[in-house]
Specification:
Radius of gyration: 31 Å
Helix content: 55-70%
Number of helices: 15
CATH class of the largest domain: Mainly Alpha
Number of strands: 2
Number of domains: 2
Strand order of the largest sheet: 1-2
CATH topology of the largest domain: Rhopdopsin 7-helix transmembrane proteins
Strand content: under 5%
Distance between the termini: 54 Å
Structural class: mainly alpha
Length: 378
């Protein structure tokens, strides 16, 4: 299978990279909750089983790759007939079908936990007792129930795709064709419904975000955080297309391991991206504080450089006239980020300097420039 992008090296890379990145984002999520003293809720705890199942999927792919079942062509049967592959039962083929069978079960539950986590996150920030009668509250509740039923139904259904004898799922193709007749509709229905629900869930909060009383720029930034999930949706769409292509006539070619490898490759990507994306919105406080400090510093620089208020007028009079007396050594400012008047140490310092005849206009100007440099550096 060297002709494909799903090479053994690529499979090993994503099977190691995504669990590591997922672990880091989940740790940062819980760390952020602790730093902000936020109460851990259902959406936080659901990330743990999703991450654990991602590790199981990664282990399956690593096992298949290191044993020659994934990323390469299966051994050709000794029988030269074109349809001999139907009766082939090499160790690599049996292992490949075992991996596919277990991976289908694991990913149903992993995707279910991921979807429920993001839905509960939506409800934690957009829903309350006051919003019980709103459409968003009702839609998210219905989606939560739907995802729960979907997870249980397909999670159990994939176990019994071959009836009461799961061992038939990794038999020869001839056995699978006759004993696993419900495999095609179950797995194909699972892939299509998974993609449709992903689209609905990730687009669900966008209208709500647009109604928030924040600037358009902030709305776009917040919306982009959720739209990062489009990467996971793209992986889901690719996986769905491969499922459909594989199951339209699944036993018509002897190179079926190529499609199975493609399928597991994109399944790993979707699972890995899902865990990462559901944690991104929760990490916003980590960089929100920096953005707030930047906004505050910009506002301070604006007050100093464009004197239009009473405070800036006092500064201008002090610097130009060298006042020897002042009614107050401190000038009150109103910070937009904190209610009530506060005292600006920098302004108070300039005003107190103006009380002494030896303080000239040049010294005041130098002091103001030093303060601006400190603001820029902070």
């Amino acid at each position: 299978m060297s002709r494909t992008y799903a090479t053994p090296a690529a499979i090993i890379t994503i099977s190691i990279l995504f669990p590591v990145l997922g672990t880091l984002t989940v740790i940062l999520r819980f760390y952020t909750r602790r730093k902000t003293k936020s109460v851990l809720w259902i959406d936080d705890w659901l990330t743990l089983p999703a991450l654990g199942l991602e590790y199981v999927l990664a282990a399956l792919l690593l096992w298949g790759t290191t044993t020659g079942s994934l990323g390469g062509l299966l051994p050709q049967p000794d029988d030269p007939r074109p349809d001999a592959y139907i009766f082939s039962n090499s160790d690599q083929q049996i292992r490949l079908l075992q991996i596919q069978y277990v991976a289908d079960i694991v990913t149903v539950w992993a995707f279910g936990f991921t979807k429920l986590s993001i839905l509960y996150f939506y409800r934690s920030i957009f829903c309350s007792r006051r919003t019980i009668r709103t459409a968003f509250h009702s839609v998210t509740m219905c989606m939560t129930v739907l995802v729960s039923v979907w997870t249980v139904a397909f999670g159990v259904g994939t176990i019994f795709i071959c009836g009461a004898h799961p061992v038939n799922a990794w038999g020869t193709i001839a056995v699978v064709t006759t004993e696993c007749t419900v495999q095609v509709p179950i797995v194909e229905g699972y892939a299509i419904s998974d993609f449709i629900m992903d689209v609905i869930i990730w687009l669900l909060p966008l209208p709500r975000i647009w109604l928030l009383n924040i600037s358009v720029r902030q709305k776009m930034a917040l919306g982009l955080v959720f739209l990062v999930g489009l990467l996971a949706i793209a992986a889901s769409a690719t996986r769905m297309a491969i499922y459909i292509a594989h199951h339209i006539n699944p036993f018509a070619q002897s190179d079926g391991e190529t499609l199975v490898t493609y399928l597991l490759f994109w399944t790993m990507i979707e699972c890995g991206l899902g865990v990462i994306v559901i944690c991104l919105p929760s990490l916003r406080p980590m960089y929100k504080k920096r953005e707030l400090n930047s906004l505050i510093n910009s506002f301070k620089r604006y007050l100093y450089r464009i004197p239009t208020s009473t405070t800036s007028s006092a500064l201008r009079n002090n610097s130009l006239n060298g006042l020897t007396n002042s009614n107050s050594s401190n000038v009150n400012l109103v910070r937009p980020w904190h209610p009530g008047p506060t005292t600006s140490p920098a302004v108070g310092h300039n005003a107190s300097m103006a009380q002494h005849p030896s303080n000239t206009e040049q010294r005041i100007q130098v002091t103001r420039e030093i303060e601006l440099i400190r603001l820029d550096s902070s």
